[in-house]
Structures are given as C-alpha cells and as structure tokens.
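Input.
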Amino acid sequence: MLPLCNNIINISCVKSNWSSHVRASLYSLMVLIILITLVGNLIVIISIPHFKQLHTPTNWLIHSMAIVDFLLGCLVMPYSMVRSVEHCWYFGEFFCKIHTSTDIMLSSASIFHLSFISIDRYYAVCDPLRYKARINILVILVMIFISWSIPAIFAFGMIFLELNFKGIEEIYYKHFHCTGGCSIVFSKTSGVLAFLTSFYIPGSVMLCVYYRIYFIAKGQARSINHTNQKLHFGLEEKNGISQNKKRKAAKTLGIMMGVFLICWSPFFVCTVMDPFLNYTILPPLNDAFIWFGYLNSTFNPMVYAFFYPWFRRALKTIVLGKIFQRDSFRCKLFLELNPQ
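Output.
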C-alpha cells in the first residue's frame, strides 16, 4: 500500500517513499542552500545601511533585492523543503495559498530587481554625464515600488482568485487536488501570463540592456586604441566612470544574465509548456526546477556584492566585530568616488 499524507484514503495525497538516507541527503542539501541564502543576503542588508560610503541609489536597489531574497529564504524555502522531500503539506490549505502567493511574489520581485539593476547600470556605463540626473533616489524608490507591488498584486490576485486554473477546474479537481498537498497548476492562459510577467519581459529587458552595454563598452575600448591613452583616461575619469569600470560593469551583467537564465529558464519553460503537454511533466522534476530557481537568490549577493572589493572589506568588518565600534559607519571601504 502506498504511504499517504493523511488517513483519508480516497482523497489523500501520496507521500514520498524515499529511504531515510535519501531524505536526510535532500534535507541537508536544502538546509545548506537556505543558510547560504540567508547569510549572504543578510550581510548585504546590514552593510549597505550601516556604512555611509555605501549610501548610493544603486546600492539601495541592491539592498531592496537582498531583502526580497532574504525573505524568500526565510519565509518560503523552509516550507518548500518539507513539501519537496515529503510530497505532503502539513500546514493547512489556507497557509498553502499564502505560501504559494508569497513564493510567486518574492521570486518575481527578485527578477524585477535584477531587471531594474541592469537599467541602472546601463545609464551608469552608457550615459555617465547624465547618470546622476537620470538615476536619483526618487527614481530608485519608484523602481523598488514597482518591483514589490506588481509581483504582489499578480501573485496574490492569481492564487486567491484561483485564476491559475480557471477554465480547467474539472481537470484540476480530478487529477491534481488532494488532501495534504500544496501544488500549483496553471492553465494555458495563466501559464503564458506568468511566463511573460515574471520571466520573459524582465528577462528580455536584461538581455537587451546587457548587449547594449557590451557593444558600447567594446566600441569605446576600440576607440581608445586610436586616441591618446592618457588624455582619454583623464576625460573618462572626469565623466565619473573609467573604462575599467565599464568593462567590469559589462562583465558583472554578463555573469548576472548567465546565472539568471541558468537558474530560472528550466522552471518557467516547464510552467508555460506543461499545460500544452497535457501536464505530463513529473512533479519531482518540477520541484527540482523550483529549487534551481531558488538558487538565483542564493547567488545574487555573490554576483552583485561579493565581486566588489568594498563588500569584502565590509564583510571582514562585520565578521571581526568591528561594526560595533564607535564611528564604524565611517569606515573607508574604497578610495574611488564611485564604488560601482
């Protein structure tokens, strides 16, 4: 007899039949992912408000993204871990809706932040003279507001209004709904909408911005070879961003795009394709893709903060306890006028 999530045989979800060793291995791996996500993003959350040198518009956008990723690791991933390993949901049907909505909201908000960060870097690299006029704290606050509000409205509206399986109610209640489970099923329409809103549109923005930055940086590097190196360097420094910083920004955005696409592409491709394949994608495979997507929040602080020397100095200050010293917020983390 198959193991069940509860005693109601006819309507109960089937529990996983993995051995204790497999479960222990999965729990260990997922706990490690959660801890790395929490610690990495918490360091970013502490560093940017504490150190005065880091109070720049760009860093506040990174700070907001770190809060999103931290909440994902704190509020969503632990419950997803139990569901993924046990194939059961022990926390009630209403909390299932809360968890699913929060999961979609935070995952989408993280992706929205990535998209806005790429736009910020575009203006910093491609239009440095007008960067401060275009990207000020008010603009950043608007970006942050959009990054939180649109995913929240989309996620909670879709789940609590049950729009995700509208039109396929009979299929959902016959083949997917069971007691003790917490799975999300998309219809063809809602699957395409989720794909466009949470992945394709922000991902396309990131991709277009990255290629634009790459070709501009490449063209500027080529022009240096035909001009006076010293004079051009002086002009670039006067404009507020060196050629080296432009190459670094392009490289960072390239890594950002690679990590984003590798982590989230499998899940969203499956999400949009599954309804058209008559829901033939196995739930364990979908669970694996969800966790692959979560890894994007684990890697974000490494990509956007760990790559910069100022962050390593801030990390050292925090680990050694120097952050509790008087006037530690004035600690010089870098010499340049612009750490970005």
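Residues 230-241 have pLDDT under 50 and may be disordered.
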